[in-house]
Fold this sequence. Notes:
Layout: E1 2-7, H1 13-22, E2 29-34, H2 36-46, E3 56-59, E4 76-82, H3 84-92, H4 98-108, E5 112-117, H5 124-136, E6 139-140, H6 154-169
Parallel strand pairs: 1-2, 1-4, 2-3, 4-5, 5-6
Amino acid sequence: MKLVVASTGASGAIYLQRLLAQIDCIQNELHLVLSPFAKQVIHDELGELRVPAGVHEHNDRSMNVPFASGSTFFDGMVIVPCTMGTLGRIAAGTSDSLIHRAADVFLKEKRKLILVPRETPWNLIHVRNCATLLEAGAVILPAVPSFYSKPGSVEEVVDTIVHRILDQIGLPAPGTFRWFENLE
């Protein structure tokens, strides 16, 4: 698969880190774009992002990348975490950065676009922007973890969302836990 993973400035850099760690970069072509605020949040929350070998990194201010145009095929794009500001700009069709432009391309080409907002609570503007994007074909996958599997660490809690992202883009999650097998 050819995938774009982007991140914006919402808290939750661990979701990005865990997703990058679970995508096989030998089997998949992976492109990464970080907004300036994502870089700041990553620094504040993780210290540094561990980017696997083989990941192609791009500047959010550049439009000279293959996925900024619909003429080059990519299978999917994930923005994790996705700020409500980014979500709103995408809903409005604003393409003033590579992340916004790529999301617009994925929508217009009817390709998989997954937005993972982590912010809460939502106001009516957020809900309307989500509805607009759902109508346009995006997947809104809020970072709302599950606890069926009785996670024992923060990473296991985060992975409940990461595994849903992987499922949405059609990639297997390594060691996926099947929560329903543990129900008593």
